[in-house]
Give the backbone structure.
Amino acid sequence: MKFDEAYSGNVFIKSHPNYEESEAVIYGMPMDWTVSYRPGSRFGPSRIREVSIGLEEYSPYLDKELDEVKYFDAGDIPLPFGNPQKSIELIEEYIDSLLKDDKYPLGMGGEHLVSWPVMKAMYKKYPDLAIIHMDAHTDLRDDYEGEPLSHSTPIKKIANLIGPTNVYSFGIRSGMKEEFKWAKEVGMHISKFEVLEPLKEILPKLAGRPVYVTIDIDVLDPAHAPGTGTVDAGGITSKELLASIHAIAASDVRVVGSDLVEVAPIYDPSEQTANTASKILREMILGWVQKKG
């Protein structure tokens, strides 16, 4: 894909037409090759773009408009269907290229395994990287039914790479007993069930550090986001998730990249999930992109 041309398909609302002039790059990772329950998240990025046309360009939360941030929608990374290893390699190479150009990477999944190669690339540039992870699930397995490339494993892989004490998970309400036990033993931070209040307590500890934020849409209760592959009751509200994004924006944390994953439009004919994801992305753009410096 040529970086000096706008994506020829649907683009996220107010996408800047020029890559070189943009501070951030939005890209899709349309992969759901390793899901353990319901596939369909590979269609998430395109649908989030399509429904973004219904967004207001102004955020009353942040008192900013999308015109105030230059971001380029590069479209989806072309990934080989059914080949997770090659897909992971291509994603990492792509993020390497964005970071070389000093762009803020803002990814859309796709299953959560796509965050793993992004983190590998981020860690090469930011060796003191910390991760804020919002999710219903721990994602701390070594493998799923003997397969190490699984959407249930990315946070364990990341913790082993950057050190478990640099991983901060919030909203967790599902996982194997062994996963919770491992996290406790190695000093990884896990906040069960809630996000906003425990996040506020952690943010001062991360002040000044480069931080990557990964959000699985299933951190939301299924009442707020039914369009995802592995729904799990007891989640947070969309209001709390938005407030958490704004808390990060108001902090001294250096957000150097982020993603939103696991939107599976086929399971939500009302399109509530895609529209919610679109609004979340707007707030991520306005709240975090200029915090990378």
